[in-house]
Prior knowledge:
The longest helix is centred in the N-terminal third of the chain and has 16 residues, at about 50-65. About 35% of the residues lie in helices and about 20% in strands. The two termini are about 35 Å apart. The protein is an alpha/beta fold. The protein folds into 2 domains: about 5-175, P-loop containing nucleotide triphosphate hydrolases (Rossmann fold, 3-Layer(aba) Sandwich); about 215-400, Nucleotidyltransferase, domain 5, CATH 3.30.420. It is elongated, with a radius of gyration of 25 Å. The protein has an 8-stranded mixed beta sheet. A 6-stranded mixed beta sheet has the order 9-14-12-11-10-13. Strand 10 and strand 11 form a beta hairpin.
Amino acid sequence: MRPPELDAKINVLVGSVRSGKTWGLHSKILYGCKYNVGGRRILTGVSKSSVKTNVLEDLWGLVGSANYKYNAQSGEMTLFGVPWQVYGARDEGSEKYLRGATVGYAVCDELVLHPQAFFEMLLSRMSPKGARVYASTNADSAAHWLRTDYLLNEELVNDGLLWSDTYTMDDNPTLDPQFVNSQKKLYTGVFYERMILGRWNNAAGAVYGDAWSDATLYDNSTRPVGLYGQGGYESHYIGVDYGTHNPTVFLDVIDDGHTLWCDRLYYHDSRRMQKQKTVAEHADDLEQFIKESNCNLQPAVLVDPSAAAFIEEISRRGIFLVPSDNEVLEGIRKTGSALKQGKIRVHKDNCPEMCREMPEYAWDAKAVKLGKEAPKKIADHSADACRYIVNHVFKDNWRLAA
């Protein structure tokens, strides 16, 4: 491991999950305690909490409790008596923490998740001679600012101002092969290329193109015997994607502890039906939909958090609501992994609109050109209803890795 004196000003470790990038940061933090440079020593991440969890807790285990002190509220840390400051870089406004500061040594965890304005402000504050920044990151969109403005900047590289390298799990000799295989199950499509192969790429084409197949479908003859009865299920959910001008969807899902069985679908398209229903009418339909379920267990209902009026209406009626997580990209990743592993099955006769929409659900090429990633707002209603349930059921990754 090179000492800071021999490093470039900007040093970036790119790679897959569990490739050992964070351990590389640990050595640079320790080097930073004795490196002779002016200015502050700082650690950054999405939040102070994420820096503590992802980086510092393992580091503290290495150095021992007698050699560090940390204030979780202020982010102030001393390591071997040397002061450090931890900052969260959650949004564009976070760059205000760096204004007026002089920074000589910076360590950044998951740099792709930092706002560009924060990183640019950081570099502008690193005026001391010999100032260094070290960062770890997973790969992301090929249009991400870190790749286009820095990693591919030939002038920075040729002048020796920037160094980077890419690693995969195969470069981490401490990993058990069984664990590596379990991690590979967690990702599919664009996420597999980034998180497992460490490649920068643009999301393109069908969102679930390599995960959706005929094997996803079932009918009454292939539904598990006893799925509706006690012992055949563990949980019962209804995902709701509420729309006024856009379709409203109720997705009835039975969870047997291994697989989510998407068994029925309510789909009201006000434009196609030429009838726009009121909030109360949709709530009536949801109550009827619940009554008609073949599963005797009362369902937990997950609704798009933005549908405030509908949530208020069904809450007044005593329908059991569970807070839903509308995180899109992580939900898409988990849904794709679950589909690929056969942990989501869809009734081809009872959910025809879902069977039509899911293969058509596609990435928005215009958004990618703007450096953003999002699916098109077309044929997304069933996918959204399903994602609310997936984000809840697979909140922790253990079921996807099993």
